[in-house]
Amino acid sequence: MAVLTRRSFLASGAASVLALSRWQQAAAVESPSDMTLGFSTYGMKSLKTEVAIEAIARIGYDAVELTVWPDWDCAPDNVNATRRREIRQLLDEKSLQLTSLMEHLYPTEDDAEHAAGLERLEKVYQLARDLAGDKPPIVQTVLGGGNWDAKKSMFRDRVGDWAELGQKHGIVTCIKPHRGGGMSRPSEAIWLIQQLGNSPWLRMVYDYSHYAFRDIDLVESVRAALPFTAHVAVKDAVQQNGKVRFELPGTAGTVDFVTLLKELNAGGYRGDISCEVSGMVSGKPGYQPIPAARTCYRNLAAAFKSAGVSRAR
Asked: What's the pTM value of the predicted model, to 2 decimals?
């Protein structure tokens, strides 16, 4: 891949002007004037998508992220045209914004695997359009494991292809730094975005639970990441015996969500604050998704109130 060619495609000429124009319009006109509080169906694998949407709306959330991994209910191959229309209608009836589709696709050196990944993403981008029309959600994914220095060039090349495909569909692709992953810091996601010409079609997901108990300050990282951030995920992180485990947001008290919300609001962020239930929690015996969603809502709604930050309702 020629990096300069990709930069010129994504960051200059008519294509880039159009992309920037659309991004600015979305930020200034189509997006709500306030942040939304959402819940991710990553914590509701046992439920049908329609049941999850009903529950999330009933609890009081403003938005939803749908998990679209191949073995999940809302994977593109599991949602035919009729069901797509019904889910879209249900979202409208419940006044629930679809803010994100969660993928789990890793970049790879293997060309055949990369091509298969692009085909998989194509289906996800189409699903985003079918479920939300001209206001599609972002599509997010982590980038898998490995050593950053060894993998960053490959990440750049493969993610660049993803961003081009997303641009074709008018979908913003978001990459998420993940604790222990090949890309684990906000600064690394920013590097990838800048290497690809700071395309408005490639942004990042900010999730402080992956930076806690490291040399990454919450306020400093929010301010550095915010110009490149299109989605925010929240959950708690607890450190014990040198290991970190994730908990429901607001239950451990280790992440200052009030300060996080204040910083995001002051910096002009008007996207979703999406409650994410880690597999460390949902995989425990006896886990119940709807009570977990209620707990997340109670804790984050209180954080919004304490921060003095209004929500789009």
From this structure: 0.91
